[in-house]
Structures are given as C-alpha cells and as structure tokens.
Amino acid sequence: MRAAGLGGAAFTRPRAVEADAARAAPRPRVPDDPTKVPGTPPSELGQRSPFEQPQRRVNRRLPSGESETPLQDLRGIITPSDLHFERHHAGVPAIDPERYRLLVHGMVEHPTVFTLGDLKRFPSRSQICFLECSGNGGPGYREIKRECTPQQVDGLTSTSNWTGVPLSILFREVGVKPGARWFLAEGQDAAVMARSIPLAKAGDEAMVAYAESYLGARVLVQKLGPNFPTFLQYVSNGTSLEQALMLFNVSAADVEREWTRRAGAAR
Length: 267
Known about the structure:
Blueprint (H helix, E strand, L loop, with lengths): L56 E3 L5 E4 L17 E3 L12 E6 L5 E4 H6 L3 E8 L5 H5 L7 H5 L2 E10 H8 L7 E6 L6 E5 L8 E7 L3 E3 L13 E3 L2 E2 L7 E7 L14
Parallel strand pairs: 4-14, 6-13
Antiparallel strand pairs: 1-2, 2-3, 4-5, 6-7, 7-10, 8-9, 8-14, 10-11, 10-12
C-alpha cells in the first residue's frame, strides 16, 4: 500500500536513514505585485506550490525499506498520495498491468482468474481508509528525544481515499462455500507474503483497490515513478498486518493459516 506491506511486524529502524529534512531551498522568486504581471499558463499536470516542500523520511536499505509521512507538515486528515508512507520487504516490484492476474480459489464453487479489466468492470467503491504499519511508533518507545518530529515517531501512518472493487463482490462471483471462515491474501512482490484474514471482514469495508487519489490520482496500476509501484492492494482500515501489496492470490479456507514470508526476505 502506495503503502505498508503485508506482515509489517515491528522492527528496529537501521540508522542508515536519509536526512530528516532536505536542505532549505531558496524561496521562489515572485513579483512584488502579482496584479501587475501575468501568471504562468496551466499545465498538463498540477504541481504542489513551490512554497510547500514536504518530504518523506526514507530508509533505502535494500531489500527492506520504508518511507515515513511528514505528519507535522500536513493539514486535514487526508495524506497526499505522494507522501503516503511505504513499507517494503523486498523492494518495489514492477508489474505490467496488462499481464496482471488475480486468482480467487480455495473453498469456492468457481475458482476464477481475474484480469485488471475484469476487476474494473465490477461496481467500484471509493472509501477513506486509515492505514498504520504494525511497526509504527517504535522510536517513541525506544529512542524518544525532545527533538523528535511526529514524522519520526508516527510517520508510518497515512489516510487516503481508495477506489476499487469490494472483496465481497468477488466472493459472491466465485461462490464461497458455507464452511469457509478465513481467506488468505498473498502478495506478488519478491517477499511473497501471505496473511489469513477473517472472512467476515470481506463483508464490510474490505476491497481490492486499484487507485488512490488526492492531489491528483495515484493510480496503482500505472507506473508513475520509482516509488509508485504497479500493483493492486487489499485495503481495509487497520494495521498493515492485514494489507496485502501487489495482491495476486486470494484463497478461501475453513482454518486460519499462519502469515508467511519467503525465506530470505527482509523483515
């Protein structure tokens, strides 16, 4: 999840962390009287005001990595999409949306493979979700200092407006069998993490998200830059232990399975 990854267990942040704030950039030059000078023409893409320069705080140690939201620089409850925190256990994968497939199987009547086009043809829903990495707040317990910023203490939290197909619709499409009580969500990055989630959660707010929007759409199925992966995401309010990045496998089951990560993947 544009986001914390599945199985984001608590971790100790390495000290190989970038500077907390970029060196102060010179203030933009503007006319003394803007009523006397024509402004710039509109552009194809909107841009943040040059007087606003918030940045995420990034740990680039591969294959694990994280970026923290600059909470102290934000206003309101919605996190700009380019400032949403990230938590990766095997780097940011590149996935071709035309080759993307989502398998829904297990205790279902009709195991089905969905393409991205298939998912977009279902009724969509947009909802605001708060996401928090399960490792959030670590410095507040271990390394609290007077000069710590909200970003350093709780920067692994973000709130966004997500759009996608409700998971309950997909489960109705495949026909979940009466005995199913859990579903396993499996990610498609190199860590291949998997997590069991109560099936009841698919009946309320859970969805397979393919877009996140604010200050311009962060469309998860389009490559916008090195920190904007191509993926779909299982989204539901709560901690990142239940958020599956690069979702490609959903399996209904009658028992809970222990969450897993591929051997050798970073914590």
